[in-house]
Amino acid sequence: MAELLDAGVHIVTQDIDTCSENYKILLSVHGAMADDYRDQMAYRTRRVLEGRARDGTPTGGRAYG
Length: 65
Known about the structure:
mainly alpha
């Protein structure tokens, strides 16, 4: 994105407009929220797989070969 901004290209999306003065703050907040969401999904996935393993049920698909 820095290359586009250096070339004078402004980026406008649903949430962010690089013409505004506070777009860097918004990018940081969106990035932090996305990072937190990924962490939550990883935690939930591990929790479910651990529960299945404790119950003796399969934790994955069929092995190939």
